[in-house]
Design brief:
The protein is α/β, with parallel strands linked by helices and about 300 residues long. It has a domain at about 10-175: NADP-dependent oxidoreductase domain (TIM Barrel, Alpha-Beta Barrel). About 45% of the residues lie in helices and about 15% in strands. It has helices at about 25-35, 50, 55-65, 100-115, 130-145, 160-165, 185-190, 190-200, 220-235, 240-250, 265-275, 280-290, and strands at about 10-15, 40-45, 75-80, 80, 95, 120-125, 150-155, 175-180, 205, 255-260. The strands form two sheets. An eight-stranded parallel beta barrel has the order 1-2-3-6-7-8-9-10. Strands 4-5 form a two-stranded antiparallel ribbon. Helix 1 (about 25-35) links the parallel strand 1 (about 10-15) and strand 2. Helix 1 (about 25-35) packs across helix 3, helix 4 (about 100-115) packs parallel to helix 5 (about 130-145) and helix 9 (about 220-235) runs antiparallel to helix 12 (about 280-290). The protein is globular, with a radius of gyration of 19 Å. The structure holds NADP nicotinamide-adenine-dinucleotide phosphate. NADP nicotinamide-adenine-dinucleotide phosphate binds near residues 209 and 266. NADP nicotinamide-adenine-dinucleotide phosphate binds next to strand 10.
Length: about 300
């Protein structure tokens, strides 16, 4: 199998909070165009975002400029069945990776997003009940039908990733995980080393810890914020978000941050971070602040 590389822009715009931005279709289209001008051409969705509403909001805005689709990449996810007023019969939240659910979920996403194909489909979370053979069958058919170009996972550990990969006839191109100067989980569980070893580009969700870095609410966030402020001062950089993104992108795993803000000025900070360099000691001071103790 020739190993396909992840085909996304170096920074992705995340649409999890899209419904909160209260943009009409025209305003959302404008924001999308502004992202494209900045070099951000990839947009991250999931079937469940905004209580199953976000994909449709984006799809409606894409209708206003039919030519735009070929210039962007759309990511969506499947597998979580939320408790929602949209599905009144559900009694509990479950994860469903059956062949039928994956196929149905992709059909819904395509309809909602007003498109014929997804550039990337991710399994949203690992599941205690997981039939890799069924998932692989769904992936093969979706690829053969031209409905999904690339496939990956989200929040998987190494063994979960490798298990699914064993069954698939295409390579999984990414694992979307939480990585930030506040969340070191994937440095600790071996995923970051695995990404480097396998040359798998990870996508980083909540790269600014969901906003916690701006309003710290515990000792750890206070310490991390302080370290970011110190490094920002040394580099004469106006805001700590630039430092947080630069910290992520310095790592040799080639992390793709998923920017979660709907505000253009804040999206621009991620782009600015691409040309911000910090030295190794500055990188480690931020790591140690999150780690809570010196290196052994
Ligand atoms: N795969 C998964 O399981 C998973 C889980 C969570 C998220 N995601 C993906 O990752 C994307 C990003 O996640 P996220 O939204 O948590 O990212 P984030 O960038 O860590 O957090 C965004 C939040 O931080 C706030 N913020 C950003 N810059 C700020 C500043 N300078 N001052 C104050 N507040 C600031 C934003 O508010 P404003 O909007 O007001 O700027 C927003 O509420 C999501 O959209 C989604 O696509 C994936």
């Amino acid at each position: 199998m020739t190993k396909e590389k992840l085909n996304l822009s170096p920074i992705v715009h995340g649409h999890w909070r899209l419904a909160d931005w209260k943009l009409n279709s025209q305003e959302l289209l404008k924001l999308t165009e502004q992202c494209i001008e900045l070099g951000i051409t990839s947009f991250d969705h999931a079937d469940i975002y905004g209580n199953y509403e976000c994909e449709s909001l984006f799809g409606e805005s894409l209708k206003l400029d039919k030519g735009l689709r070929k210039n962007i990449q759309i990511i969506s996810k499947c597998g979580i069945k939320l408790l929602s007023d949209k599905y009144p019969k559900r009694k509990v939240k479950i994860y469903d990776y059956s062949y039928e659910h994956i196929m149905e979920s992709v059909e819904n996403s395509l309809k909602n997003l007003n498109t014929d194909y997804l550039d990337l489909l991710l399994l949203h979370r690992p599941a205690p009940f997981f039939n890799a053979e069924e998932v692989a069958k769904a992936f093969s058919e979706l690829k053969a039908q031209g409905k999904v170009k690339q496939f990956g996972v989200s929040n998987f550990n190494i063994i979960q990733f490798e298990t699914l990969q064993k069954y698939c006839d295409m390579n999984l191109v990414t694992n979307q995980v939480e990585i930030s100067p506040y969340c070191l989980e994937h440095f600790d569980n071996g995923n970051m080393d695995f990404f480097v070893k396998e040359k798998i580009q990870p996508m980083a969700w909540s790269p600014l810890a969901g906003g916690v870095l701006f309003s710290p609410n515990d000792a750890k966030s206070v310490n991390v914020r302080q370290a970011l402020i110190q490094v920002a001062m040394e580099l004469q950089i106006a805001s700590i978000d630039i430092i947080a993104y630069a910290w992520l992108m310095k790592h040799p795993a080639n992390v793709i941050p998923i920017v979660g803000s709907g505000k253009l000025e804040r999206i621009k900070t991620a782009v600015e971070a691409q040309k911000t360099e910090m030295n190794m000691e500055q990188w480690y001071r931020i790591y140690i602040a999150a780690n809570g103790e010196e290196l052994p």
